[in-house]
Amino acid sequence: MNDDRLEDAQDSRGGRPVQLSVVVPVFNERDNIDQLHDRLDGALRPRGRTYELLFIDDGSTDDSFDKLEALHERDPAVRVVRFVRNFGQQKAVAAGLRYARGDVVVLIDADLQTLPEEIPKLTDKLAEGYDIVYGIRERREDPLLRKLGSWCMSHLLYRMTGIDVPDSASGFIALDRRFVDSINLFNEKSSYFSGLFAWLSYGRWAAVPVSHQARQAGRSNYTIPKLIGLALNFVCNFSEMPLRFATYLGGGFVILGTLGLIACLAAHVLASAPSWAGLWALAAAMALFSGVQLLAIGVVGEYLGRVYTEVKQRPAFVVRDILDHGGD
Ligand code: UDP
Ligand code: MG
Q1: Are 169 and 134 in contact (CB under 8 A)?
Q2: How much is the pTM?
């Protein structure tokens, strides 16, 4: 998003000031929306703070948007931003952070895996003066393979980037307005918010335990390729280690190859060529070296692809409709 668009988005906060924005990314969540709204309403209304419920419809192909539209007609606290197509949860979060007007912004998934009733836990902790408060899942109710994958990823990523994203942290997060404004200054297209949050809130974050339930309806929108894509985004956005690793690997093999060549020459000169130096050994060595080269090219490609995405200057997301009682 360029500066003008950023200003537009920031202007959209100009309407009524609210104390709390709850941002919900929505992709094909038709069976969860009504219950989610009832429970958000039940949890927030009695607390007497002004709030808005900002739903980002990430190009749903079911009738999620119709349901959101109906909610918007019934409840003045509901705002809806609808994308022209599916851009992914990260972009929905990006839009939510830009359009939210609240002094405090809470991110929560639409699938009711985390409980709207626990929002006050997060906001109370935030009021102690943190930039960001994570809801940490006490017992994560996801399939075993998914949990194992997350655990391995967060440890590997920590080693590679030095950024500690708690692996049990859910998408249930409360953020302070100043922190949201800082996040909105970042214009990266291939964004990975958990990494960005952890990187920027260095030392000024807290975590509170929250309960976690199995998905209420529908199924997870995350497939294995999507998760691998997210992990790659995290590594490539925060670390140049893979590039350096490719250089080291290349250097290592150059040294090895040179030594091998010297050894072969020496053996030839001494007329005692060993029998293992046959065709198979050569073929295996070639396969290994071309593999390493392809790997290194692939690593460069990952970064080049990201540079390409950034220089194209396409907007991170495109909005089709905005439903807002407030004013913009
Ligand atoms: N989501 C989205 N766009 C996508 C995929 C997911 O906005 O392309 C939303 C989804 O509707 C939900 C949240 O992101 O509110 C988390 O998605 P999901 O429950 O599928 O992820 P998981 O809980 O498996 O991590
Ligand atoms: Mg979920």
Answers
A1: yes
A2: 0.80
